[in-house]
Amino acid sequence: MLDFSADLACSVKPGSLIFLRGELGAGKTTFARGIMRGLGYQGPIKSPTYTLVECYSGGRLPVYHFDLFRLATPEDLNFIGFRDYLNEASLVLVEWPECAKGFLPEPDAMIFIEPILDGRTLFLSSHSMEGKYLVDRARSWSRCSFPPE
Prior knowledge:
The protein has 149 residues and is an alpha/beta fold. The chain has one domain: P-loop containing nucleotide triphosphate hydrolases (Rossmann fold, 3-Layer(aba) Sandwich), CATH 3.40.50.300. It is 27% helix and 23% strand. It is built from 5 helices and 6 strands. It has helices at 2-9, 28-38, 76-79, 82-85, 129-141; strands at 17-21, 53-56, 63-67, 91-95, 109-116, 119-126. It has a 6-stranded mixed sheet. Helix 1 crosses helix 2 (28-38). The two termini are 24 Å apart. The mean pLDDT is 89.
């Protein structure tokens, strides 16, 4: 999972919004760690479960990693300035986007992680040209499952 997401980071474009979905313990934060490692972050990468957002700089591009599992209401994202994090220079990763359904913009890509007996199955879908580029790159070198076009 770490290797795949680190490789995928090479294809991430600035300004991208990626949703990470899956049940508790599926590996969403692990996937985010791999992306950040692939972008060149060397320091600790912690889960934003209690802080809602962790900000990282010092890699190829700034990353804002959100975990919305403990979000009281989707409108609470207004109070932390969520829309300010969405810009053309950074990457925004959102775990548990379903907790803010109707408030979040459409992502560029969605990655659904499903645990299986001895690993994980990843389902990638694109929702923009940037997302399509990301999914196409992953399709060219991986064993991911992709929904029909």
